[in-house]
Amino acid sequence: DRKLRNTYDHLLFSRSPLLSVYADMSVTCKEYYDPNRSMLELVFAPAEEWISRSDSDIIDATMSELSRLFPDEIAADQSKAKILKYHVVKTPRSVYKTVPDCEPCRPLQRSPIEGFYLAGDYTKQKYLASMEGAVLSGKFCAQAIVQDYDLLAARGEVIAEASL
């Protein structure tokens, strides 16, 4: 029912254990622009233990987390900002769950196979599994290919000359 003051024109990673990312769509998308009200879109994850819960349970937990993120503007009991409308979309298995000690399992972009490279949000890079991570991984992959190009090209020329 009001405009939140501390939002930005970006998708934000959250410090909340339940709300992994969020955005104020009234700021980030011109189609939802409203100078008087915020419209938050949030990813509630990991949702494994929440997927079977009611929408009202999920909204209550979301409001509790939002009150921690925006303590001056949102209260869990809605005594500050009030929800005018909400919609919960449940998508099982769409968001990964971060667990300790999995980082060593993420492969580098330069694989152990010469000339074979990997790119994707699952590879080693600084972001979690996300579009941002996939893009950064692609950049790292391209950098590895450029770094290895001279070596690979030289080996290709040697092989080509030997087969003549």
UniProtKB/TrEMBL annotation:
InterPro entries: Amino_oxidase (IPR002937), FAD/NAD-bd_sf (IPR036188), Zeta_carotene_desat/Oxidored (IPR050464). It holds the Pfam family Amino_oxidase. GO terms for cellular component: chloroplast thylakoid. Residues 9-145 form the Amine oxidase domain. One of its GO terms (biological process) is carotenoid biosynthetic process. SUPFAM superfamilies: FAD/NAD(P)-binding domain (SSF51905). One of its GO terms (molecular function) is phytoene dehydrogenase activity. This is Phytoene desaturase 491. The lineage of its organism: Eukaryota, Viridiplantae, Streptophyta, Embryophyta, Tracheophyta. The gene is PDS491.
